[in-house]
Amino acid sequence: MSNGTTSRRDQIRIAAEELFRTRGYLATSMRDIADKMKLSGGGSLYAHIAGKEELLWEIASDAIEAFFAAQMAVLASDLPPVEKLRQAMIAHVTVIMSRLDAAAVYFDEWRHLGDARREEFAARRDEYEKRFELLIHAGVACGALNAPDERFATLYALGALNAIRRWYRPDGRLSPDQVAALTADAVLRGLIG
Amino acid sequence: MSNGTTSRRDQIRIAAEELFRTRGYLATSMRDIADKMKLSGGGSLYAHIAGKEELLWEIASDAIEAFFAAQMAVLASDLPPVEKLRQAMIAHVTVIMSRLDAAAVYFDEWRHLGDARREEFAARRDEYEKRFELLIHAGVACGALNAPDERFATLYALGALNAIRRWYRPDGRLSPDQVAALTADAVLRGLIG
DNA sequence: GTCTATATAATGATAGAC
DNA sequence: GTCTATCATTATATAGAC
After folding, report:
1. Best residue in B19, B167, B177 to probe A by mutation, most A CBs within 10 Å?
2. pLDDT, tens only, A22-33
3. What 8-state DSSP symbol labels residue A1?
């Protein structure tokens, strides 16, 4: 909501996000979510949401739009190819670190979506990742990067970035900015040869 | 088994491995496993195994021992630090690519183990990963690597390696050896700065 | 909006016939 | 070893009182 309050529906989504990350979607029951909301029995949730899978979909699609939004801002900028790639990578891992719960759904739990939504999600994610491939291609084309296999380079880069979600914790030793810079630089060195 | 046959128990484990990867542990029922074995109803499985979680444990512990075995062979060798690290990384990703189903359990599904086994697994995995950190430390100590934060370097390296399991397929464009070499080299460049 | 009670379906596991 | 039948449990979701 635009004011300082969060709707009941958003509170449910936030509770679900955290449980979906810590236990997994299938291991989280509607009663678990209700418990976290201090409601007695899962029935009350259905006054706000249509069902469990709808909750998963809302989290997944919200997450992917967060990645897109962060990426768009970088793509719109006027930077040299490699610096643009670097900024896109930093934007990507920043979304991961600032939205760890949603990122878990984005990376792992989305596969439990129903067929139609799962395919829609995968297509949109492919679209997002394709733009990284284009950034890498631009870097190779201008001679700043040396990646003989651009497809592999993209998979390598995204894989290295996405792994952050497995160990980064907000109360950890390194700040998000430090993690982002260290990771983006390590990936870029790998892509320069 | 030492001869050319596989025991019924092993057949069950192999069927379970594949289902645990493609659907996830919780989304796989004993009936699903029985279907894949062309058995009618999940009941027959219990003549061979004690239960579903025991199956998960068997796969998880077998996978971690495969990683250890591959790593041991490299550690026992007499190579300079960075080359030893390179070979350990290649051994690691080779296990992943040759055992994709088991790797899915090793990376994702082990969390559904019961408390005792889950903790035992995590401790053994930490032990395994610690040896990568020691290899990186040795590389830094001899001046061949430039990793100001060795803990981060270890997490970065393992993350980049482990990501392979998400996209590598045996019938893909690149051979396992190519993927292993490309990945290990990219990681090493990232660690040399 | 939340509560309790419940309908309906699926699950892991067991028992006993063959 | 495999089969069928079944038990106990748990799940999502709904209904109706308040």
Report:
1. B167
2. 999 999 999 999
3. -
Number of domains in chain B: 2
Q: What does the pLDDT look like over A22-67, one tens digit per residue?
A: 999 999 999 999 999 999 999 999 999 999 999 999 999 999 999 9
By C1' distance from the Cα of B11, the closest nucleotide is D1
| B159, B174, B189: residue with CB nearest A152 | B174
What three-state secondary structure class fits A27?
coil
A30, A36, A180, A184, B69 from A188: Cα distances, Å: 43, 42, 12, 6, 32
Task: Pull the structure tokens for residue A9.
Answer: 């529906």
B contact residues 95-124, partner A, Cβ 8 Å cutoff? 108, 111-112
CATH number of the domain enclosing B35: 1.10.10.60
**Facing residue for A108 by CB, picked from B108, B163, B174:** B108
Task: Give the nearest chain B residue to A174 (CA atoms).
Answer: B152
Domain hosting residue B28, numbered range: 8-47
Residues A67 and A117 both lie in one domain = yes
* CA-based nearest residue to A36, from A54, A60, A55, A19: A19
Same domain, A133 and A157: yes
Per-residue model confidence (pLDDT) at position B17: 98
Which pLDDT does position B4 carry in this prediction? 79
CB-based contact B128:A125 (threshold 8 Å) = no
